[in-house]
Amino acid sequence: MTFIGHVVFFVGLVFVGVSGNIFNLIFTIQQQVKTKTIQTVGLILNVISISNIILVVATFSLVMDVFQNPQIWCVTPYPLSIRIEAYLMMTCSFNSFWAIAWLSLFYCIKVVSFSSECFQTLKKNISPVINAAVLLSCLFSSLFFTPMFSLELAISMDKNDSVNDDANMTCPQPSFSLQMDANAYAAAIVCLLCPIPLMIMLPTSVRMVVHLCAHTLALQKNETHVKGSDSYLLVCKLTISLVGVYLSTLCIVFLFIIIRLIGQFITYHTLASAFSFYGGMTSLLLTASNRHLKDKLWSLFCCRKAKEQSSKSQTVETGDV
């Protein structure tokens, strides 16, 4: 691929990963300013959009640094730009993943009926609880990933080593200059990015599907139809689709890391494509589930005046009802 081809490819990836999130962020904030309220779903949508934008841009910047200098991982000390990019990628991926987990939990508590008094009390106060959880997650990630600024080579490169052959060159594994257990820290990162959020996403999504199936069967048995059932179905589709995008992205990223660790060649295009796919698909799914954003999108592409939406016009997917 030529240099122009690389530029076009990466610009396309950035556009796919960022454009939808910018659209969602702008019109969600516009609605929040107009209504002078920030609902839980709106807050989560803002966090996901901002995190995805920074994640895609930071990944693009990292890939461009490596493209311009393939030996950058063998430089000691690491350039500050590399450390900043690693910090932003970790922090923003954490924020975005956990925002999806909190969104799944929020919808599950709001949609599913519980007989326990504890869950009934939680259902009444779920909005402030999830709001606090989202904000605390962002604060935690900003502090937890600060060791990324201390990334260094585990050992110095031998001056006699040849670095002319970039394709066959292997660099020492990065470590941390801080006095800490690097293996334990790496294990904590892996757990916080995959198993723990997934332990929230999957049970809540499955519980909503089970509830929806039981609800639909009851309606069919009584030969009745409730308008809100369609909204509940859309909620289930949204959460399951977000989980699928999340798992697909993690599989690609982990595959990339494993191949790099065993010393095999894999282009950084893979990493950029994974996060671009994640940012683009999550923004598309969130837009499709939000009536206000869909109206705005139609008004842009179909030259049709968007209807002014109040809190009444929002479906269960967009409002805290």
Question: Can you give a write-up of this model?
Answer:
This protein is mostly helical. It is 70% helix and 2% strand. The chain contains ten helices and two strands, in the order H-H-H-H-H-E-E-H-H-H-H-H. It has helices spanning 3-35, 40-68, 80-111, 117-124, 126-144, 182-193, 195-222, 228-261, 269-288, 291-301, and strands at residues 151-153, 174-176. Strands 1-2 form a two-stranded antiparallel ribbon. Helix 3 (80-111) packs antiparallel against helix 5 and helix 3 runs parallel beside helix 7. It is globular and about 70 Å long. The model is unreliable at 156-169 and 306-318 (pLDDT under 50). One of its GO terms (cellular component) is membrane. It comes from Culter alburnus. The chain crosses the membrane at residues 6-29, 41-64, 84-109, 129-149, 184-210, 231-259, 265-286. Keywords: G-protein coupled receptor, Membrane, Receptor, Sensory transduction, Taste, Transducer, Transmembrane, Transmembrane helix. It is found in: Membrane.
What is the count of helical runs?
Answer: 10
Strand order of the largest sheet: 1-2
Order of helices and strands: HHHHHEEHHHHH
For the residues shown, what is the average pLDDT? 83
Shape: globular
Subcellular location: Membrane
InterPro entries: TAS2R (IPR007960)
Family: Belongs to the G-protein coupled receptor T2R family.
Pfam families: TAS2R (PF05296)
